[in-house]
């Protein structure tokens, strides 16, 4: 099992200094062809991100307008994601007869995914050790019966991940609220929640304000805590275009990620044979959690530059007309001390001053950011400080400027727009009440961390996951597993097998569904679903492939039938009509959700439409009615002597909780996921040697020892004091209560750990993934080797 995590043939070569080019094309095709037939690969690739085609089920990066679209409007990873879904492998009832729940739980994330697409509904009955087939009707009766038997609707929680399209998302929240709960945890709670919190408070909208054209036009783009070469590959095309037009880019990262350095466009001649485009004009090799200090220092420098040459640095008219709180903010930020900034960032004063000079030379500035910022304890104040920085020079509400939180899942932003939010504003609930004639529950529901706590404490007993892999996406794996196992019922609407299916409540159900690439035919004919990307563009997606099994139901069908079975038929919420024709759901959305008037007509345009962001018209729906300057207490992550700050991140070859192989091409790591990247000077200081085996032990105030066993130390150019290892293998180290202030997002990028040498390497992996070395009995299809050089 060459590619399985934990293999002994780990190889490490120097990290790459450029991204994509020809190897990316080859890797995408190799992976795709291993999963499925050449015909299906052709269908997926010719249709992905095309006008009447399939929206890429990968990340939320937007497409070009249809006129400008390339025939290959996808990236290496997009091709892998869609063909991972289009796989011709199948999980059938025979598989579940052979493998007990305990065996499923013991299989690695990789192996489970490799089994292929789920084909029929399965149930694990109370006390049983195995899943067995169940008919759809019986499954719905079982679920509805359990829901009706709960003492309170708040004993149920409904999790969503951002793969779900708008129609299913709207139905899910409608069902949950008609049933009586706002317990709608979602993957956003662990992702861009900090962005939503900070932007909502300061600008009045929890979304980004820029478009692709703004990115092309900006004079300066910051890319902070983000690895676009892997996670949003086509963002590199946009950055390249910005450079071509004379823009500048500053990358802020704890690692020199390949995609931030140089980009070779795989679909242009110069990208294939040339040296590619240099991306970052300046790279700030920042310490983990140092970003707040960096922006505070930059803001202080801007105020001082204005003092020195009044009227030339700050955008006074903008500040006067559109903002509040400037004076208090300015008084506060002037106290920022250089010594603390240099300690927190690990940068030199000269480096920060160089950034400042660039900022002064650039009129239009955009800040892009992702998980390196949001998953830190002080993620929310960091984003608020970035907003301060933009406000000082009027970098909002004009072309080429603004905020750009780069979203993860393809429809994670749309799901929020549709009301998948445990803290949805009252005006949304009022609109639901007007449209459907019931009174939704008031008050806030549970988010992801809150749901785990409630399950642990016996307060949530029914868990339904729609897409996603809750048990592997969430922190504190051992605590979360116990919490799920203590439920009366856990059920998952999924396309593929994952670890969440092996961590069961007393009763468990697997409800297999269509993926985005599958043709979806209902009583009224072929259906489309709609999605919203990271830049608020809404458009249709049309599945093209023959579904993985005739027994699959769409997410909409599953939710509509479950709702009707649970709540009974009602003229006010015509669930059957919704299932028969998704356009009827969109009609309702157009009346409930602002910005969706004429929804059905507008998605007929292959380009779709852009939701208006009021910020771009200087309309700020904040407490003061203006864009708000905020005062943020200075904060950074400090590890005690002998410790490092660990971040858990993605390799180049995984989709969130699902590794596609044990390789991380750009970082030069092959055949091993149980590795920890450490700065060579830190290694020397800690007395560690290359490829030494260590346990990662997280230190947290609750005194509980959290341990991930048997990792190998890889010397890597991480910034001093900052280590990196892969998610989800290290989620066991993130304490449930270690969350970002205000947003409650787990601090997956800021875990204080010590590296403890392993005395007896043969002792095996941590209990949490006892057989991650792929020893699960007889379930694995052979995997081709990946020794080929990249
Ligand atoms: N191929 C692929 N694409 C994906 C995904 C995937 O799993 N695979 N997942 C999707 C999802 S849901 C999301 S949310 C996005 C995630 O996209 P990213 O946010 O790019 O994902 P991560 O791998 O978590 O990388 C975090 C980056 O932040 C840096 N970083 C860590 N800590 C700090 C810090 O304190 N300061 C700074 N400045 N940098 C820091 C890390 O070195 C790394 O480059 O990607 C989406 N796209
Ligand atoms: N330590 C650590 N933890 C993290 C993170 C981190 O960086 N570090 N990142 C966090 C982030 S940003 C996120 S977004 C979450 C991701 O958390 P999730 O979104 O919960 O996880 P995924 O791995 O994307 O879920 C994969 C599963 O989704 C199902 N699926 C795929 N497509 C479909 C579909 O079309 N329909 C349905 N019904 N099911 C489908 C498949 O069964 C597949 O196994 O993880 C978070 N957890
Ligand atoms: S950049 Fe994201 S959305 Fe675009 S093709 Fe790649 S994975 Fe898909
Ligand atoms: Mo995410």
Keywords:
790 residues, alpha/beta, Rossmann fold, Dimethylsulfoxide Reductase, domain 2, six-stranded mixed β-sheet, 33 strands, binds ligand MGD, binds iron/sulfur cluster, binds molybdenum atom
Walk me through this protein's architecture.
- The protein has 790 residues and is of the alpha/beta class.
- The protein has 31 helices and 33 strands.
- The strands form ten sheets. A six-stranded mixed sheet has the order 6-5-18-17-16-7.
- The longest helix has 18 residues, at 291-308.
- The chain is globular.
- The two termini are 20 Å apart.
- One ligand MGD is lined by residues 161, 163, 187, 190-191, 371, 375, 408-409, 466-470, 473, 493-496, 498, 513, 515-516, 555, 648-649, 655-658, 727, 731, 734, 748.
Compact summary:
The chain is an alpha/beta fold. The model is unreliable at 766-790 (pLDDT under 50).
Q: What is the chains' assembly state?
A: single chain
Number-wise, the strands total 33
Taking the sheet with the most strands, its summary is: 6 strands, mixed
The separation of the N and C termini measures 20 Å
Q: What ranges have pLDDT less than 50 throughout 5 or more consecutive residues?
A: 766-790
CATH topology value of the largest domain = Rossmann fold
């Amino acid at each position: 099992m060459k590619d399985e995590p934990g293999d002994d043939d780990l190889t490490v070569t120097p990290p790459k200094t450029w991204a994509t080019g020809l190897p990316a094309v080859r890797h995408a095709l190799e992976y795709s062809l291993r999963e499925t037939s050449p015909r299906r690969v052709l269908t997926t690739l010719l249709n992905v991100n095309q006008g009447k085609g399939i929206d890429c089920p990968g990340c939320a990066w937007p497409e070009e307008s249809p006129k400008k679209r390339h025939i290959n409007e996808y990236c290496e990873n997009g091709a892998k994601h869609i063909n991972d879904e289009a796989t011709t492998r199948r999980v059938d009832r025979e598989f579940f007869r052979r493998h007990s729940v305990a065996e499923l739980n013991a299989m690695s994330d990789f192996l489970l995914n490799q089994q292929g697409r789920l084909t029929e509904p399965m149930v694990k009955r109370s006390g049983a050790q195995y899943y067995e087939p169940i008919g759809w009707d019986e499954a719905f009766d079982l679920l509805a019966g359990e829901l009706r038997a709960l003492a309170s609707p708040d004993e149920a929680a409904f999790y969503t991940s951002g793969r779900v399209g708008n129609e299913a998302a709207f139905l899910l929240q409608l069902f949950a609220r008609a049933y009586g709960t706002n317990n709608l945890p979602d993957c956003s709670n662990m992702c861009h929640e900090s962005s939503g919190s900070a932007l909502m408070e300061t600008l009045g909208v929890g979304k980004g304000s820029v478009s692709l054209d703004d990115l092309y036009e900006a004079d300066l783009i910051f890319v902070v805590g983000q690895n676009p070469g892997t996670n949003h590959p086509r963002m590199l095309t946009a950055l390249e275009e910005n450079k071509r037009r004379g823009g500048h880019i500053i990358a802020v990262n704890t690692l020199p990620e390949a995609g931030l350095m140089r980009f070779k466009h795989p679909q242009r001649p110069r990208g294939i044979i040339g040296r590619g485009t240099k991306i970052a004009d300046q790279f700030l090799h920042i310490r983990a959690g140092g970003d707040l200090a960096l922006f505070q220092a930059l803001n202080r420098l801007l105020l001082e530059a204005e003092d020195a040459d009044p009227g030339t640095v700050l955008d006074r008219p903008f500040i006067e007309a559109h903002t509040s709180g400037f004076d208090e903010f300015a008084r506060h930020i002037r106290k920022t001390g250089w010594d603390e900034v240099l300690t927190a960032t690990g940068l030199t004063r000269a480096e920060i001053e160089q950034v400042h000079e660039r900022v002064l030379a650039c009129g239009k500035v955009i800040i892009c950011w992702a998980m390196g910022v949001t998953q830190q304890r002080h993620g929310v104040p960091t984003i608020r400080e970035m907003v301060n920085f933009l406000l000082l020079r009027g970098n909002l509400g004009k072309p080429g400027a603004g905020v750009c939180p780069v979203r993860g899942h393809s429809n994670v932003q749309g799901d929020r727009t549709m009301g998948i939010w445990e803290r949805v504003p009252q005006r949304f609930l009022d609109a639901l009440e007007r449209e459907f004639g019931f009174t939704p529950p008031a008050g806030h529901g549970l988010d992801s961390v809150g749901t785990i706590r409630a399950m642990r404490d016996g307060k949530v007993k029914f868990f339904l996951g729609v897409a996603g892999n809750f048990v592997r996406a969430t922190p504190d794996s051992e605590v979360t597993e116990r919490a799920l196992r203590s439920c009366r019922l856990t059920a998952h609407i999924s396309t593929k097998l994952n670890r969440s299916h092996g961590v069961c409540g007393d009763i468990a159900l697997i409800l297999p569904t269509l993926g985005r690439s599958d043709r979806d035919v209902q009583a009224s004919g072929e259906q489309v679903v709609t999605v919203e990307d990271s830049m608020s563009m809404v458009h249709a997606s049309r599945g093209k492939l023959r579904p993985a099994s005739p027994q699959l139901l769409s997410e909409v069908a599953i939710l509509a039938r479950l709702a009707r079975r649970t709540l009974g038929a009602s003229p006010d919420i015509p669930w059957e009509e919704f299932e028969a024709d998704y356009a009827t759901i969109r009609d309702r959305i157009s009346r409930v959700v602002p910005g969706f008037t004429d929804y059905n007509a507008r998605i007929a345009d292959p380009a779709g439409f852009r939701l208006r962001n009021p910020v771009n018209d200087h309309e700020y729906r904040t407490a003061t009615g203006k864009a708000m300057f905020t005062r943020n207490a200075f904060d950074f992550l400090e590890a005690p002597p002998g410790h490092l700050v660990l971040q858990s991140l993605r390799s180049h070859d995984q989709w969130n909780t699902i590794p596609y192989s044990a390789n991380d091409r750009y970082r030069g790591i092959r055949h091993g996921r149980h590795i920890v990247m450490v700065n060579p000077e830190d290694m020397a200081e800690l007395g560690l040697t290359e490829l030494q085996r260590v346990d990662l032990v997280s230190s947290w105030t609750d005194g509980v020892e959290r341990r991930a066993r048997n990792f190998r130390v890889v010397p890597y150019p991480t910034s001093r004091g900052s280590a990196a290892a892969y998610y989800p293998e290290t989620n066991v180290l993130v304490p449930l209560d270690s969350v970002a202030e205000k947003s409650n997002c787990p601090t997956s990028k800021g875990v204080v750990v010590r590296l403890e040498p392993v005395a007896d390497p043969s002792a095996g992996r941590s209990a949490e993934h006892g057989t991650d070395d792929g020893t699960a009995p007889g379930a694995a299809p052979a995997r081709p080797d990946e020794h080929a050089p990249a």
